[in-house]
Amino acid sequence: MRTDRRTTTLWWFIAAQLVLAVGTTLAGWPQPILNVVLLVVIVAMHALRRYTLASFAVFAGITFVVSNVYENLSIVTGFPFGDYYYSDALGLKLFLVPLVIAPAYFATGYFSWQIAHVLLAVRDARPRGRDVVLVPLIASFVMVMWDLVMDPNAATAGGSWIWEDGGGYFGVPVSNFAGWFLCVYTIFQLFAFYLARRGPAAIRPEAETVGDAFWYQAIVPYVSVALVLTARFLTREDGIVTDPAGQNWQLADLGETTMLVSVFTMYFVALLSTLLVGRSRRDRTPV
């Protein structure tokens, strides 16, 4: 059953709220926890159109366990992200990791998962055959884009987490991105295995008939992130921030670099995904 006009309008309103939530979070507004909660609520409303409540809970559970294990392990041992620790800026912690981190992984991971389906032209809610591996792989690359544009500011001017030995990318080491890829790939691959094992029982009966608006709404967060970074570049402030390794970084350079990176990652993926959804619609239209 196709989404009717009223439902489509409702979901676009929700997508607009998502822009606000993602944008204010990345802009460093003082309510990151509230914004992540809003993101999770929006993700739930979007995801439960395709996945059963049980599948949704499994994805949330996998994300919570895997992200916390990897993050706490890295803070204690340095593997897989590197040597870092969280400041008190993000609130209460579970062991050494703020409680808000796992929901943030969950929300951004969900949209990366959906974008991977678009890029691979996989409309099935349940990956099959080689897509059981390909969807998690592509979703992991797409997911790391978030960290590529977010971490430099959060780890320096934002002060949300601290890299003890610094790094070449505005105080962030290469190991951080390798660790992120490993972490999110583990999450996606476990979820793909779950969906493959559960079969049709993992998805809603109407899952394969969602309209194009469903896919466009999953693209909105990527546009939002890129727009925020562009706005930050246009309103950049002069100044210097020093990382724990003693390296000085120009705030203007940080803003310009992350904006430029977002153009060829977030903007590009959003544009390509939008074109692919539109092309898919044309291919399904009888001539």
Describe this structure in words.
The two termini are 22 Å apart. This protein has helices spanning 5-26, 32-47, 53-77, 101-119, 131-154, 174-198, 212-234, 251-284; strands at 84-86, 93-94, 97-98, 161-163, 240-242, 248-250. The longest helix is centred in the C-terminal third of the chain and has 34 residues, at 251-284. It has one domain (16-282). The protein has 8 helices and 6 strands, in the order αααβββααβααββα. A hairpin with a 2-residue loop joins strand 2 and strand 3 (97-98). Helix 1 packs antiparallel against helix 2 (32-47) and helix 4 (101-119) crosses helix 5. The protein is 66% helix and 6% strand. The strands form 3 sheets. It has a two-stranded antiparallel ribbon. The chain is mainly α. The chain crosses the membrane at residues 31-48, 53-70, 90-111, 132-149, 169-193, 214-234, 259-278.
List keywords for this structure.
two-stranded antiparallel ribbon; 8 helices
The end-to-end span amounts to: 22 Å
Strand content: 5-15%
Number of strands: 6
Give the H and E element order: HHHEEEHHEHHEEH
- Given as residue ranges, the uncertain stretches (5+ residues, pLDDT < 50) are 26-30
